[in-house]
Amino acid sequence: MKTVVSIGGSVLVPDLDAGRVEAYADVIGSLAAAGHDLGVVVGGGPTAREYIGAARSLGANEGELDQLGIDTTRLNARLLLAALDEDLASPTVPTDYEEAAESLHRDRVVVMGGVVPAQTTDAVSAALAEYVDADRLVFATSVPGVFDADPNEDPDAERYEEMTASELVKLVARGESLGSAGSNAPIDLLAAKVLDRSGIEAIVLDGTDPRAVERAVLEDDYEGTRIGPNHD
Ligand SMILES: Nc1ncnc2c1ncn2[C@@H]1O[C@H](COP(=O)(O)OP(=O)(O)OP(=O)(O)O)[C@@H](O)[C@H]1O
Ligand SMILES: O=c1ccn([C@@H]2O[C@H](COP(=O)(O)O)[C@@H](O)[C@H]2O)c(=O)[nH]1
């Protein structure tokens, strides 16, 4: 099985805690030991937002801010790599999908961050999953799925157990203003569109406990939202 796991920076590095990074590395190790080839994509988290906020106040433009965000995601990817067994994971952080796919031919695990401005690592994860023909994509984020409103803003927000990729596109497009660097949404619009065209199954879950990712991948046991291919 080939699986892409998208680990939100807000989940992996809400603060700089080596123990939390190690716990994620342990889970990646056990998924690889169970026979999974893994593409792991790491987000920028609060560090990216702090840098982006500071640079915005210094007058940087959106493209420059995105590049700062990308650099932070790659920094977080390097941090996770430091915790992974060197026999398991490719030692460098690929900067495009071709490089990532090549690494995945050689190694069980490849870890990457952002790629180009004007998107988030959600889109990187979906594009990587499509590029390497992954069987499944797991978004480990800070909320337990996709809701009909932002659950951190609306106490009545309800979680979708299951939805199609085109329903996700509509939901995200509704809530998305012109995405600016460091903005947050459950899944970005580009990622939703890639899921829509590729038909890859995705799961969105709360990845605060990395074992939730392990259970989802190994036992199909999770509390979250399953995004499936369209019905036609
Ligand atoms: N309809 C919705 N359903 C679920 N979450 C939503 C929705 N609308 C907005 N959100 C927000 O989406 C965010 C998704 O997680 P968040 O941006 O924290 O990070 P992440 O992708 O896990 O990591 P990173 O910090 O690297 O971006 C949550 O903060 C949540 O408040
Ligand atoms: O391919 C990419 C990935 C990321 N960015 C920028 O970085 C930040 C942080 O990424 P998250 O996935 O949101 O953690 C993001 O908001 C973008 O500004 C990018 O431009 N391209």
UniProtKB/TrEMBL annotation:
Alphabetical list of Gene3D superfamilies matching this protein: Acetylglutamate kinase-like
MF terms in GO: ATP binding; UMP kinase activity
Taxonomic source organism: Halapricum desulfuricans
Entry similarity comment: Belongs to the UMP kinase family.
Catalytic activity, as annotated: UMP + ATP = UDP + ADP
SUPFAM superfamilies: Carbamate kinase-like
UniProt keyword Membrane, yes or no: no
This protein's name: Uridylate kinase
Pathway: Pyrimidine metabolism; CTP biosynthesis via de novo pathway; UDP from UMP (UMPK route): step 1/1
Cellular location(s): Cytoplasm
Keyword Transferase in record: yes
Cellular component terms per the entry's GO annotation: cytoplasm
Binding site for ATP: 9-10, 45, 49, 141, 147, 150
Main location: cytoplasm
Regulation: Inhibited by UTP.
